[in-house]
Amino acid sequence: MAKIHIPTPLRQYAGKQPVVDVSGKTVGEALSDLVARHSELRRHLYTEDGKLRSFVNVYLNDEDVRYMEKEATPITENDNISIVPSIAGGRSPIIMRSHSRMSPSGACCCC
Amino acid sequence: MAIATETSPASLTNDEILRYSRHLIMPEVGMEGQQKLKAAKVLCIGTGGLGSPLALYLAAAGVGTLGLVDFDVVDYTNLQRQIIHSTADVGRKKLDSAAEKLSAINPFVEIKKFDTRLSSENALEIFADFDIIADGTDNFPTRYLVNDACVLTGKPNVYGSIFRFEGQASVFATEEGPCYRCLYPEPPPPGLVPSCAEGGVLGILPGLVGVMQATEVVKLILGIGDPLIGRLLLIDALGMKFRELKLRKNPECPACGAHPTITKLIDYNEFCGIRGEEEKPLTAGIPEIQVEELKRRLDAGDDLFVLDVREPHEYQICNIGGHLIPLNDLPKRVSELDSSREIVAHCKMGGRSAKAVAFLQQAGFKKIHNLSGGILAWADRIDRTMPKY
Question: Mapping DSSP to helix (H, G, I), strand (E, B) and coil, where does residue B205 land?
């Protein structure tokens, strides 16, 4: 089975695992398998209309899938898929809109 | 590839030659390399976690001019990782604290201080006098600002970023290489990626990544080695593993592509969906209770249920005996709460508990209040012996 490397900010939604084994013949299928196994990951990786979020990059081994066939890129058993979100560390931003549901990270912006 | 500097290589005094002897005896550096370092002008944005080791090593290496941009003041919680600042500096401007330490390490370095928040109004002007920009900032709007300003001024952006136990490093905005926007065309919505203050950070991590940035700066100046152009280095400090991903220049990049649409700096806070720091998160409609009132009612023996929505490791630091249900677990553990009782929810500062109250209100709880200011307010005003974190 191919492996998906889960970045630290998202591990809490993947049962705290850094790597998840997934099945699928393409990158898209592998990601679908991932969110099927860990449903809380879905809203972090996908928008409401099912598109991969733009600040989340997906790599097959060391290549950005945007420059391959994106989610249609075929994969083999030994492949490593990496999810690479942007990180900035440091200061917490003050949000523009109030969230009526809880922030997905579970942590508030002022604490 | 060496970064061309506008002035001719500066000559070295006998003292400098002795100081840098360990550089000079290496053919990869030599007199010529050290002179390039002396002639180089590097701007360090931020003198915090990443900026500390970055600036310290660049000063030690003999970079001739170091610009420092920081408007912040040294805080006690910075000392766990911002090693350019010491305990005696708490309360001082970071700029002054940093400049002092850098001059002490190497008086031959000219330090230029910029006591300002980097903004669209000043970035281009500040960048103009420098050859290389090292980005040690801590928020997304500034990342995009620095990137765009680097692309517009044609200066390389030596990038490093960290989160908890992981880091990233690369060199953006060179002519042939990608820029930050090639990798991340859009920022994440606020609240989706936790900050250091929320998530914590292993103190040594910015040390590791900051020195990587310093290494890349030196390589660019000297024109040696393989810089991280077109390469994203992923650092996993816990596993001590380093992985590398290929970064490509996006031909359609709005900043550095063939037909750029970004021709001037924009409002980056707006771009990232963030309002200015003066605004507080909206808490309209959330009933609040002050710590004094809570104390009074608990002492009077009122039947109050105190709900603590922090994480277990925070509870261990300090608590007021509340029933712990971390915010994330609240939806599935709401059955532990009795809606007929009066509930006071608290967290560290009042933000998470406000969300808990909003959630519980929607779930039909009517007798619920948010403890304004959280347990920090309790430690400030009710129990001075309680540790703060």
Answer: helix
